[in-house]
Amino acid sequence: MARIIPIGEPANEAERMVLRHLREHGPDTWTVVSNFELSYGPGRQVFEVDLAILTDHACYIADTKGTLGRIEVRGGRWYPEGRTPFASPVRKVRSHARVTAGLLGRSRAATAALGSVWCEGLVILPYPSAVLYDPAGLDERNTVHLSELVSFLREHRPPDNRPLKSVSDLHDDLARVFQAETRPPSGPRRFGNYEVVETLHEADPSEPFEEGEDPARRVSVYRVRLADQPQSGTHILQVHAVDPLLSESARSTAHARIGNPVQALNKLPSCPNIVPCTTSFPLEDGDGYAVVLKDVHADALRIKLDAKGQGALGADAKRRVVDGVLSALAVAHAHRVVHRHLTPDTVLVGRNGVAMLTGFDYAHPGPPRPRELTLGMEAFQYQPAAYLAPECHDRPGVFSPATDLYAAGVLFHELYTGELPVREAGGILLDALDDADRIDPDLKAVIRALLSDDPAARPPAREAIGRLSLVDSGRARARARALPERDEEREPFDWDNPHSYDNLPEGFRLTEKFRVRARLGHGQFGVVYRVFNTLDDTDEVLKIITRDRESVEERLKDEYRILRKIPPHPNLVRLIDAEWLPRGRFPYLRMEYAEGRDLQRVLGRDRTLGPADVRKLLEDCLAGLAHLHAESVFHCDIKPSNLLWTADGARILDFNAAVSADSTLTPVLGSPRYLAPEATGLKRPSREELADLDLFALGVSAYEALTGGYPWEGRQTPQRGAEPADPRGLPGLGDLDPDFTAVLRRAIAPRRFQRYRDAEEFQGELTAVREVRIVPRARTAPPRPAAAGDTAGTNPFVSHLQTLYSQSNRTNAGTRGLDPAAFPLYVDTALDTALRPHVLEGRHRLVVITGNAGDGKTAFLERLAEEARRRSADFGEPRPNGEDFTLDGRSFHTNHDGSQDEGGTDNDTVLDAFLAPYRGTDPTAWPDDQTRLIAVNEGRLVDFVTRHEDRYPLLAATVREGLSTGRDAHGVTVVNLNARDVLADPGGGKQPIMHRMVAAMTDGRHWAACGSCRLAPRCYALHNARTFSHPTAGAQITARLATLYRMAHLRGRLHITLRDLRSALAYTLTSGRDCAQIHALHGRQASGEPEASQELLDSLYFTSWTGTHTGEDRADERDRLLAQLRDLDVATVPDPQLDRRLDYTGPAAGHSLVSFDQRGDLDERLLTESFRALPRTHLADRAQISAHRAYLAAARRRFYFESLDGTRWTRLLPYQAADRFLHLLSTGRPGPEELTRVIEAVNRGEDMPRTPGREGRDLALQVRAVPGGTVRSHRLFPADSFTIAVARPPASPYVETSPRELVVHHHPGDERAHRARLTVRLDLYELLDRLHRGHQPGVADRQGQNLALAVFKNALAATSYQEVLLNAPGSPPYRLSRLPDGALRLAPAGQAPAGPGAAQDTEGAR
């Protein structure tokens, strides 16, 4: 625990997070001085410093940035995702470190040794979601995530690697200097009525400004809020300050210079496309101005231009940028404001796609002023050259509205083409608009007009808007309003056709307010969409009424009246209002959006609900129907697709068939599948008949949810007069409680008088049912011999599980040999089901079984001998390391471990004696009347046959072939258990090894002894066992645990043996304790020991699978598999929406979790106790913070395993590309599109720009950058020289295998050339998938999985290449190709590569 010396108080939660982390995880030898003000010298500005971290070898001056999401570093700025860019904090903190070093050397409180202390600046990112992308590497070496802070500081050294002396003995002296020479902050910093929340960048006006430096560094930027209205939201406050030590004339000039942007902003009216200026005011000391802007949630357009995949701008979004920029310029120019610095950095794109202009730091607010008083020259100096109009080069510093319009044209060109227009020698401008995709010719003409060399030919912004409004082929708003006849070519969407609404794409604009998110469903009256309300920033549901038998308008009015008269109810979807689409003639109903899935989707893929969940479904739906019927409203279309399963309970939706008791419309009596038999002839049903329709349909829906089938087998509609099938006759439902079964069957009885009269009667009978399953009587355990110290309330099986755990603190004897006869946990593998019969039939002469310790080799040989005894084999004298027996005239000899010495005989001699019959090159000389079986380490086997190949030439070749292919030869079979996959599907209706092992360990017979224990209702081990063995929900829990085990396997870092599997599963069930220890733990909890409750919570299966040891360092876990699983902890995957629910509403996630009847509520009680004990203050101590994290992690893990939603749980998987990877492995045929994805991902990691032609499809490797160079070059390797395939393990009928990796091969044209090979396992595939989707590799990627590509790239670089792609800023890319005759050809990248006969045509280009 690091020592904390606070000088001031932390300003925000981010700073508190860092302090807590250092206090809890920093070494005891470190000291942290926090929150002080540092002066740069007399008359200089005072800066706030968050931390001075004194480590063993250095002093780090640290700044905390509480930025969320992706942060891109470009030049001297940071571009945080969705927020305003600001100057990089790294340079400033480096400056703080230099000042600190000088302070330590000259302070009166210092000793001479302090002057040599190495001081370094550091920026800390405390939030896990923060990802720094720094392609130039400018800031990354001084930026660190909080989770990596301690390890970073331990290992960090100066760039020159000079030796450092220990400063541990100087910490007290250093602390005294900070306490003497600094001062605490005087409270939250204020500017006028605004209080600083976060310092984004702090400038020193007296600091000399270096040539070429980003001018934004001269402006201090803060995130602020109104001091008297702290809940009113945040603003961005810019401080434009003047050095107070300047001469009077210089200060006057500086005041006039910074006054320009302030005057410009004050002149501008409110405009949605200009970041609004809330206010501006002079600083209190009179040395500058403060400008307050709205803190918009937006990204700089520069980031959007560089984004790919999901983050890239679509055609509609690009057009909105054009509209927004032109609208902003039109307003600015109308008020005589010239922006003078229009670039992608000064345009922000909001979450709703609206473009907003900002960056008025060089703006010109009126008539030209004398040159020395304007920012014109600075604007000319710092504006990128490509954005300067031609006239600016002739008259530097002179700007006008026309120069803004030229810059807008350049911006639009880059927006649509991805590159800047190029000006050739002679001043001719070349654009790439003709090569751009999906750009309208009229828009193209406007952009070219804006790029005109003649300022007078550039259309003013308002005129350009007018042109685009008239010719907008994408949306045609103005034409649609102006023309009475609709132009089909201009307006392809037919608003009057009801079928046009059937499949609207995501993002479709239904109205100015609503954008389509996704289609939720459709029916006989219309279609339902989830939409985004752009005014409220919320999701809602629109049901568009497009067709009806009687009248669209009457149907809308009737349904609207019905829904409006129903008071709100938690089990009904709420209506908001109704309206007509502004175009077309169709009405819609607007309803709340509830997160969830309809029951039909929940039941997809042959899934059913457990009886307890069906009971919940009935209770909620009956409550909703009772409420409806009390209001004289009847749904008339109850079915699974109209029952929404949400975290807050089941809800009834889709009232398009609903009727009220006094309705004059002909009722539509629901779907025939759910319609009572006698209802088909009803024309005007009575209230009682309508109520019966709803209850009957609910009963059928519940029956289907429980059984997965229809109550009347072989039919699609209810059979008149036929009783529904008893669900207890179906597999897995034989233990349904008779009372519950009776309630369900009465609801769907064949005659109406047999069914429930109303919802209240149905509810009453359901409430009277106590259990949905028959409660089994406590079974008496089978008699067993009494053991010493045996006591009541113990189960010897739990003690046996303790011995299976490899790191058991008592004994792990169970990890070796066979299980006791009382607890048979051995799971048959392909060795038992396939190899054993073949061996005993005499099919093989020699069987070699290789693998790791714990693969079950010895157990197989022992069980083979047992089977031989059952068949009355004759056994010889027992050997310490094997057996000899004769069966049916054939002799068998086994060696249980051929890798070890035997007594005084060395291993080489042992192997030579055992394998002696298989010497030579003639297999016919090998014995045919005996079979030898040996278990041996693969490396030892290969070493032996290689060293003795002169005596075993044929056997050596056969062994190598068997290891690589799995094929038999000459009666020899090699079984390589290193290829075994315990999660592979063995086929034939059998489950994988892991699933069968879980079933064996949780078999109720092993746990029967727990039934009489007083602790049984609250024993976590029994709770875990009942979870996995639950007849309906247990399979889900096992499958989701298997998913995590599968990921551990696919990472390729561990071969999972049977021993590993047994050890990890045993720990998952018992946490390594026996019954006595479990009783002791519960006793500690009963006595009020707080740590005991947390230990119990961590012992529940949803946490114990990670190998968590409460109160201990989890890194100490040495079990091989548990250590790998810990890296896959689902509790570490960000899911803010779930965290908010768990953090603020509690662990009971409503109906989002599957129900477990007869398991007990131990998990819910422990989680609820933890939730209630959470601190609701920021002043929590270390123990409270730890408990809070533990609660949230446990609740999230439980949600992963027990979430009822079939897809929601996958969001917590640590590998988001796992599904796609598994699909590729299972199909075995990754197509060309997958190879293209891999190549594109590699190219993105190489910073390959988008290029026309095939260059974008070829694989590119960047040539090492030259310092100061402007040309980037990439070596090109044709895409058709690569192949991708699934790497398959050796195929053997005796080993369960499945593929686990992809392989990319390079096939160069020169057959003699070196071939490169890339093996893609799960970790690397995840990175490639992220790169392909537009992720830019950050620091962690370049230091981690990106290194896995290094070997492939190095091997590829060693091959010959024929083409290089050259790129320079502002120029089109060029291809440099080597021709067949050795000459070089340089040509634009878009041209086809030169062929064999091209030499004559390219003479002039050589």
Protein model, in words:
- The chain is globular.
- It has seven domains: 3-188, Trna Endonuclease, Chain: A, domain 1 (3-Layer(aba) Sandwich); 248-479, Orthogonal Bundle (Transferase(Phosphotransferase), domain 1), CATH 1.10.510; 498-592, Phosphorylase Kinase, domain 1, CATH 3.30.200.20; 597-768, Transferase(Phosphotransferase) domain 1 (Transferase(Phosphotransferase), domain 1); 830-979, no CATH class; 1014-1212, no CATH class; 1227-1371, no CATH class.
- It has 41 helices and 45 strands.
- The longest helix has 21 residues, at 687-707.
- It has 1406 residues and is an alpha+beta fold.
- Helix 20 (796-804) crosses helix 29, helix 27 packs across helix 28 and helix 30 (1075-1086) crosses helix 31 (1090-1099).
- Quickly count the domains: 7
Which CATH class of the largest domain is shown? Mainly Alpha
The helix tally amounts to 41
Shape: globular
User: What fraction of residues sit in β-strands?
Assistant: 15-25%
CATH topology of the largest domain: Transferase(Phosphotransferase), domain 1
Biggest sheet strand order reads 1-2-3-4-8-10
